[in-house]
Structure formats: structure tokens, C-alpha cells
Amino acid sequence: MHNLPDYPTEGNSPWLKKQQAAGQRSKRIIVGIIIGVLILVVVGVAAGVSLSKKNSSSSSSASAGSPANPDAVNQTDPNDPSTFVKNPNLHQSFYGMAYTPDGSQLPNCGNSLANVITDIQLLSQLTKRIRLYGADCNQTALVLEAIQRTKVDMQVWVGNYPVATDNNAAYDRQRDTLKAAIQTYGTSNIAGMTVGNEFELNYLNDNGGTVPNSAVGDQGAALIIADITDTRSMLTGLSLPSPMPVGNADAGSYFNTKVLQAVDYGMANVHPWFANVSAEAAAGWTAEFFQENNVEVAAALSNNPKMYIAETGWPTQSSDVGNESNGPGTAAISGLQTFLDTFVCQANTNGTGYFFFEFADEPWKDAQFGGVEGWWGLFNFNRTLKNVNIPNCQSP
Ligand SMILES: *[C@@H]1O[C@H](CO)[C@@H](O)[C@H](O)[C@H]1NC(C)=O
Ligand SMILES: *[C@@H]1O[C@H](CO)[C@@H](O)[C@H](O)[C@H]1NC(C)=O
Ligand SMILES: *[C@@H]1O[C@H](CO)[C@@H](O)[C@H](O)[C@H]1NC(C)=O
Ligand SMILES: *[C@@H]1O[C@H](CO)[C@@H](O)[C@H](O)[C@H]1NC(C)=O
Ligand SMILES: *[C@@H]1O[C@H](CO)[C@@H](O)[C@H](O)[C@H]1NC(C)=O
Ligand SMILES: *[C@@H]1O[C@H](CO)[C@@H](O)[C@H](O)[C@H]1NC(C)=O
After folding, report:
1. Which of 54, 96, 224, 250 has the most other CB atoms within 10 Å of its CB?
2. Strand, helix or coil for residue 157
3. Side-chain half-sphere CA neighbours of 69 within 13 A
4. Tens digits of residue pLDDT in 309-343
5. Tally of structural domains, the chain
6. Which domain holds residue 259?
7. 166-169 long-range contacts, Cβ below 8 Å, gap at least 24?
8. Ligand 1: which of 53, 55, 56, 71 to mutate, most ligand atoms within 8 Å of CB?
9. In this structure, what CATH number is given to the domain that contains residue 127?
């Protein structure tokens, strides 16, 4: 979701068309997921905006253009972020949540500890697990610091988001940042280190490939496996009290087998919105896609990597009418509500590890890409809850 330059979107990718013509077993599913990942891997530069951290006794000093909302979270002690007042409308029902602190893309870092503390206060009322995508703009340290200050029960799957074309500069930079974060904060709040986000999808697209388990796919796999191996040796060098799981995230139909054989866990994007299904059918579609394409595939490997859904959700609006519907699916709060009601607690019961997409709307994506891109949050950008009822079940 970050760092990479322009990405082809639905309709203008020859690669997509080729894939659509390929006539695979689950064509509907595959096409849907391809479109989904194409749109969701959109990348760019975060808007230079930030929220101001507020509490019950301080006054707001929002700068121009800032969506600061002084009432997003209140604290009984303004100086102690652990004293936040819980919102009775929030429930710790989600297995996990996809999260990117606002302002965490180079070169326009605009995040702040105050804003991340607000986010962690809210996130901790929804889940005990979050995943990050990358490590730029000090986001790993900010999140771990915020967890310490808020004293919440939260595990983080930290991320390293490499690119294939930069002589490993992004990978090396983030590896060093992740190492420093572990040296500062330890590993008690880190559940795993994810190396690669849609690396194989991007590599295939950039190199004229379409199939992850192919010669081109294996070339991409070799690059990311080298990073995974390097990360393992960095972690070994830290002599951690227990081994840190190392994983990889990609589109649900883009896992290369050699990559899966090199990791402890895989995280798969599985997006019903892009699969030409209704909101009512979305939860069942997601469960079936994940089981067939990811869980069963991983279970057949001797290292048996644990599989998670890295992203799944439903957009609440589109900035243009043309992208408001995808077949029987419509971007709407009612659709998000339906998906929440039919997926969240049921997936918990089924033992599915998933990261809901996503915590809050991301206006920079809307500005850059339009359509439904910026509108996947449970929260608005200003950290008010959208008009949805959060399911009420305790996540595992
Ligand atoms: C925080 O306090 C303000 C002022 O009392 C109130 O208007 C607001 O709704 C509170 N916010 C939350 C999330 O409860
Ligand atoms: C990163 O964030 C941590 C936690 O707020 C802070 O202590 C550290 O100084 C920050 N580092 C940089 C380079 O900004
Ligand atoms: C959907 O949104 C994208 C990104 O803004 C845009 O390029 C495309 O034209 C839109 N499609 C339709 C059918 O409106
Ligand atoms: C989407 O699904 C509808 C039925 O719900 C079907 O009529 C239509 O052909 C499908 N479109 C695509 C592109 O698969
Ligand atoms: C849960 O499992 C049942 C039975 O296999 C399946 O029908 C359903 O789609 C699953 N739902 C979710 C949300 O995982
Ligand atoms: C937060 O954003 C939503 C959606 O844009 C808006 O309706 C609401 O009025 C905003 N609330 C505050 C307190 O800024």
C-alpha cells in the first residue's frame, strides 16, 4: 500500500486482461482478487496532514488543513495516555486490524507520537492485534512507544516493505530501523516480522509475468527470499529470548511456493469487494477463497506456514459514481455493516486469523486515486466512528 510509484488500476492493465482470459479454476475469484489487489496496492505520498492529540482538559490548536478532532479520545488524566475513557460502542471483537499511522510514507513523514497514541487507544478497544506494512517514518517505534504509554494488551506484526528495483535500499533501511526498534523496545509486543508486501504481485506485473509459480515468479521469489533470510540472520544476531516468526504478505492468489517454504507465516489479501459479490455473500466468499487458495496450499507444505488474512473489508463510499458499485456489491455503510455482522464473529469462531481492512479512512489515497480507495475505515479520518454497530463478541 505504500512506497511504490504508479500502479495500474482496474481496466488498464494488460496483465489483468491476460489473467482474466486465462480461464482458471476459480475465475470469478481470481479475477476479483486481482482487481482487488491492483487497487489496494496503490501507493504514493501521504498527505501532509496530522491529527492533534487531545484530551479532556487541553484545548485544540489545529493547524490549517488538519482534521484534528479534540474529542476523538478523552483521558481522565491528560498527562497519562493509559487513562483513556473507553467508548461503549467499541468492542474487542476483531482478531486483528490493518493499520498505517497517518503520515508514514517517505518522503513526507507527518506522523506523531500523539496521533499514534490516539490510534492505539482506539485500536485497543477493537482488537489485541495490529499489522503494520512498513517501517519508514519511525512508525514501528511510535507504535511500540504508544503501546507502552497506553499500557494496552497489543501485539504487532511489524513490517518491512522492500522494492525490487532499488538495490535493496528500502529493505536495508527498514531492517536497520526494525532492529533498532527491537533493541529499544524488546519483543514483548511484537508477534512477527513481515518481510514483503505484495512483492510477488508487483514483481510479476513489472516483469511481464502472470503466474507466481513460474520462471519469472521464481526470480521475484529469489529476491524476497534473500531478504527473508537476511532478516532471520539479523534476528539471530539479536539473541532474542525466543525466535521471532518471520512472514510475507501478498495478494491471496500470488504466493510463490518457495516463498511460503521460507516463512513461518503468510498474510493474504482477500477482498470480496473486488470479487463481484454482494455484501451479503462477501463473508462466505472470503472464507472459501482463503481456505482454498491459502490455508490448504500452506497445509500441504512441509514447513506448514500459518496463514492469515492480511486485509479484508468493505468500502463505505466512492468518490465517483462509476466506482460506486462492482457488480452486485455497492460501496456503502450498510455494506460494511453487513460484512461486519457476517464475517467478524464467525471468522473468530472458525479460528481464522484476519486483519480487518481497515482502521480509518486515508484521504491521501482518495486524493491520489479516487474511487473507493480512501474509504475503507471503520473510523472516519478524524477518528470518529462511522455509523456502524461494532459486533460484540470477544475475539480470541
Ligand atoms: C470527549 O469529551 C467531550 C467533552 O466532554 C465530548 O463532547 C466527547 O464526546 C468525548 N469523546 C468521546 C469519544 O467520548
Ligand atoms: C521515534 O519515535 C520514538 C518514540 O516516540 C522516539 O523516542 C524517537 O526519538 C523517534 N526517532 C526519530 C528518529 O524520530
Ligand atoms: C474508478 O476510479 C478510478 C480511480 O479514480 C478511475 O480512474 C476510473 O475511471 C474510475 N472508474 C469508473 C468506472 O468511474
Ligand atoms: C457479476 O455477477 C453478476 C451476477 O451477480 C453477473 O451477472 C455478472 O456477469 C458478473 N460480472 C462479472 C464481470 O463477472
Ligand atoms: C465459517 O465456517 C463455516 C463452515 O465451514 C463457513 O460456512 C463460513 O463461511 C465460515 N465463515 C467465516 C466468516 O469464516
Ligand atoms: C468527522 O468526520 C465526519 C466525516 O467526514 C464528519 O461527518 C464529522 O462531522 C466529523 N466530526 C468531527 C468532530 O470533526
Report:
1. 250
2. strand
3. 14
4. 999 999 999 999 999 999 999 999 999 999 999 99
5. 1
6. 14-369
7. 168/227
8. 71
9. 3.20.20.80
